[in-house]
Amino acid sequence: MSTRAFTSAVGTSTFLVALAALVVASPSVASAQPMDTYGMGSRSIAMGGAVTADVEDFSANYYNPAGLARAGAARIGIGYFGAFHELQINQLDSNVDPARGLVLGLVVPGEIEGVRFAFGLGVHLNDDYISRTRSLPSRRPRWEFYDNRPRRTFLAAHLAIRPVDWLTIGGGISFLSFSTNTLSVRGELDVLMAERRSHLEHQILADLTTIRYPQVGVQVQPIPELSFGAVYRGQFALDSKLLAVVGCETPGDPFCSSGLNFTGFGDPFPGYFNLLSQAVNAFVPQQVSLGGSWSPTPDFRLNLEVTWVNWSAYVSPVGRSEIELTIEVPAALRDRIRVPDAIVGTTPQPALFEDRFVPRIGAEGTFFRERMVALRGRGGFYWEHSPVPNQMQLTNLADSDRFVFSAGLGMRLDDLRPLLPGFLQMDFHFQYSFLPDRTMTKGSLVDPVGDYRVGGQMFAGGVTFEVGFE
Amino acid sequence: MRDTSTRRRSTLWLALAGLTTLASAAGATLAPGCATLGGTAGEPEGLPHNGTGPFRDLSVAETNVRSPSGAAIAIAGVTFDSAMVASDGSLFYAAAMALPRSMPDAGMPDDAGVPSDAGVPTDAGMGAPDAGGSTRRYGEPDWTTHAARAISRSPATAAMGLDHVTQNPAFAAGTTILSASQPWEGGYVSDPWAVIRGDGSVLLYYAAEGGIGVATGASVSGPFTGGASPVIAAGATTPRRPSVIDTHLLTGASHPFLMYYEDGGRILVAGSSDGLAWSPIGTVSLTPMPARDDRDGDEVEVGGPGAIVVTSPAQRSFVRLYYESRRSNGETLVTLAAAPEGATFEAFGRPVVEARDRRFPSAYEIDDRISFLYTWGPDGPGTSDATTFVGIAPGGVRLVPEM
């Protein structure tokens, strides 16, 4: 074994140990993330996300951490993106909230014992939410993939090495924000004039925590013109729990020491209501992406990719709910106030999603190059076949195929010394998603939702600035 | 060297200017998106309801009918019987002027000094069915205190400034198009149901003392001539509230026309090949609507059918039959059932209107998203007057901005 090979082997072992530690430390469950829907980084988004074999900026933290080790310079990037939805059910606007946020990241390359490595960090911060939990009635139609899933804060940390010139390996963990919520209400509720005479206090306890999941990737570059990449992202399912408590089950509870009392019929009488809703708030299936990148000339690049998404493992968001209502109605009022014996909750429904393959294509060309300046144009496309089956029964998960077209421009300034010992890059992207009309047909003619048609379009755009230090 | 440096600086500034321009372009691209794309955060405009509602009574601002809230039509001194909205959007309704009330003892104190007969109808409001099979059941007005009921038509008017609906859901007073003229009618006509045929001619079904008749007219405006004899004759009980559908969109329907009508606390169905001659088919089998709690009472009879053929967004055509579920406590809950061919109905099993005193439902579909449901009901607690109300589903759709 040559010295260089031995050094590489030691470095690789060190890296793999570190990587294994990261992966083993990660639980098997985590949360959904906005990048699955909108992508990360303007260059990568503009190329349709077909960059598994061709990424080296901070967006490698999402697309393929192995790409971090390709970076020849330390890079710091920051960007902003916005996505706007015009999604409709029966041609009425579903008012899916827009998503806007800051993306930033860095890539720090280095060398240990002759082995090149890089550390990467990627962050996605929503403008308006750190994390959002939404519980909807089980039958209510919802845009399962766009309504609540992207409302997460994302943080990813990865390591990558380049043991030999033609091979890079990367992996690490991603963190997502998640919350469990408890709503408590106490006070007096006037049965006869609830709005005017009731005095209620509420308390919301939100437990914000993080979810971690693993991601590993590899890039192979046998010749300079050709690159291949593969990445695996782990499955994660977020168990969302919402607890609403009205009144006091435990007399010693300091918040509800006074409990909930019903008034309006003489002496107050106590009541207690407990709602527990437990469901999978967001689920991201395991995914494998295989991609290739061909660059016949220095000024042109064509990327092709396919992603397998294991949607058949999807867990329906319609979960379990339990409702308990106790009102100690005085005997004299029992003929006027009737408390139901039991309120039936909901039980989880199988989602029956199907796996899908997502083909992607992206291209990048340099159309202007001066000594310091290079201008690049980019385009991309991918097709996401809807994994959601016809919604014949209880659930109404709205979804349709998604055809995503993207385009972008990039400007890179090199040779900026003494102003900057490196380069400056600015990328811009625009993304248009078309969701053709799809009809859901119910099994019952008196289903309270009935047959319906879903479809729409989405617009997204953003800019990314990046500074490289050589 | 100097030239190179100058050129580099120029190129740098040019590039920075380019960056600024690109940033501006990006900002300009995003800014209009912020202003015009996407929707207001919050609730959807309206969710699919499949005709099951719940139907929200329109507000006064939405109907521009002053009183009561939710009324689709109001005429001073007129009490309304059942109504329906035809496929052209016009309202066919039966109504009668209230007669001046005789108050024989008014102002003449009895022994106790309390007026004993102030001229108030004894069964004006809601309540349990009268014993003995009186026609004044489930809140129906005392028609003996009114002039003879006749059938009128109010044409649809264009809505002004409505977001989703171009037709005004409310109506002005119409013109009388059919009065009792045949002996079998017993002096009144009621329960209109109009079917507009392809050539514009109209079959106007109605109920009267001797059963259900049909009048024909060259257009929705009439003139209409009542039939010389009923097409469904009264027997031990009097059939009423005919509701007729053209079945050409249905698969497997037994007749080109089907009529649903009420008789003896049941809903029956009859078939016809031309809409003029009818033969009874049988009773519509409807699973009783269960009581949700003690307040609902049990279902004791059904009636007041209002049928409509709808085509879903999946291009499935079927019959949606709204009807009254009459309860043991004297209340009426409006619900629906559906059948693909108009014969084998699947009941919804829950009310589609919150009010517990509505009757004679008639649906009008604006499109496959928005429905109006016209119902009959007393226009206030304890009053003998009644009118036609209009509700909308999805309830989240507002015809005028919410104040």
Give the gist of this structure.
Chain A is mainly beta and 470 residues long.
3D structure, described in words:
The complex is a heterodimer of chains A (470) and B (403). Chain A is built from five helices and 21 strands. Chain A has one domain (3-469): Beta Barrel (Porin). The model of chain A is unreliable at 1-31 (pLDDT under 50). Chain A is elongated. Chain A has helices at 3-24, 35-38, 42-46, 60-63, 194-197; strands at residues 74-89, 92-93, 99-112, 115-126, 142-143, 154-164, 167-190, 199-223, 226-233, 236-247, 260-263, 269-284, 287-297, 300-309, 320-327, 356-369, 373-384, 397-398, 402-413, 422-440, 452-469. Chain A has a 19-stranded mixed sheet that branches. In chain A, strands 5-18 form a two-stranded parallel ribbon. Chain A is mainly beta. Chain B has 403 residues and is mainly beta. Chain B has a single domain (56-97, 146-393), classed as Glycosyl hydrolase domain, family 43 (Tachylectin-2, Chain A, 5 Propeller). Chain B has two helices and 20 strands. Chain B has helices spanning 2-36, 60-63; strands spanning 56-57, 78-85, 91-97, 150-154, 175-178, 190-196, 202-208, 211-217, 232-233, 240-246, 257-263, 266-272, 279-283, 299-311, 317-327, 332-339, 346-347, 359-365, 371-378, 386-393. Chain B has a four-stranded antiparallel sheet, with no helix packed on it. A four-stranded antiparallel sheet of chain B has the order 2-3-4-5, with no helix packed on it.
Any idea of the CATH class of chain B? Mainly Beta
Report the principal-axis shape of chain B: globular
Order of helices and strands of chain A: HHHHEEEEEEEHEEEEEEEEEEEEEE
Helix count of chain A equals 5
> How large, in whole angstroms, is the Cα Rg of chain B?
28 Å
Structural class of chain B: mainly beta
Number of helices of chain B: 2
Question: What is the fold named in CATH at topology level of chain B?
Answer: Tachylectin-2, Chain A
Q: Report the strand count of chain A.
A: 21
Oligomeric status = heterodimer
CATH-defined fold name of chain A: Porin
Q: Under the CATH scheme, which architecture of chain A would be assigned?
A: Beta Barrel
Using the coordinates above, name the CATH class of chain A: Mainly Beta
Give the N-to-C terminal Cα separation of chain A.
Answer: 32 Å
Categorize the overall geometry of chain A.
elongated
The average pLDDT value of chain A, as a whole number, equals 82
